[in-house]
Amino acid sequence: GKVPPSSILASAPSDRNLAVWRESGCRTTHCNLEVLQESTLVFLATKPHVLPGVLQEIRPAVGPHHIVVSMAAGVTLQTLQRLLPAGTKVLRLMPNLPCVVQAGAMVFSRGSGAGDEEAALLKSLLSSCGLCEEVPESYINIHTGLSGSGVAYVYLFAEALAEGAVKMGMPGGLASRIAAQTLMGAAKMMLETGEHPAKLRGDVCTPGGTTIHALHQLEKGALRATVMNAVEAATNRARDMAKD
Prior knowledge:
The chain is α/β, with parallel strands linked by helices. The protein has two domains: 5-136, NAD(P)-binding Rossmann-like Domain (Rossmann fold), CATH 3.40.50; 149-241, ProC C-terminal domain-like (ProC C-terminal domain-like fold), CATH 1.10.3730. It has helices at 19-23, 32-38, 51-58, 77-83, 116-126, 140-148, 150-167, 172-193, 197-204, 210-220, 223-243; strands at 9-11, 27-29, 41-44, 67-70, 89-94, 104-110, 130-134. The protein has a five-stranded mixed β-sheet, sandwiched between helices. The longest helix is centred in the last third of the chain and has 22 residues, at 172-193. NADPH binds at residue 32. It comes from Crotophaga sulcirostris. It catalyses: L-proline + NADP(+) = (S)-1-pyrroline-5-carboxylate + NADPH + 2 H(+); L-proline + NAD(+) = (S)-1-pyrroline-5-carboxylate + NADH + 2 H(+).
């Protein structure tokens, strides 16, 4: 809701990826250079191996008035700045899947040519898609392991919650809805109270109650260590991809 669809111009090699943009009322083209001619703020949303070729193509059209935002995983600000004209206002953004339902978690870093004005503009636009924070570039790979890949960890946990309820006799559809609402409610409490999750977890436990018995089983299964290992593995993989 921050920008009218008619102000957005999307480019892709084929019509296959442009249909959804047209359905939303956006303009489309097959010419990347046309985007540079028509737009000031340009998002680069390609696969990492495709991006260098796109940057080479658009480089002659990039001017000091452009703000270029890359969403390509593993492509550093240093690489972006090297492949674009000196002084280009470049930012690197890493979103996650729930952005499509306006509940995403995004982080971005700015290159040497981008200032407070460009950072504020990007944060303002993306705030409609969820949480958006500016971070040092070294955090972006960690964000990938925590939130980009982390969405899948949460889906796995939600699936396990629901299957546990199915095992105990609840219909699957109802169990899935309750599991999803439970996760959403717990996350909302973390964000709105600002409390450490350990404090909130403790608030749920009563002496000798159901929760502490269940938490004992999770601890025996090394849930915390396993999740920490998952974040570490995904972060390391993101760092390796940046070197490839």
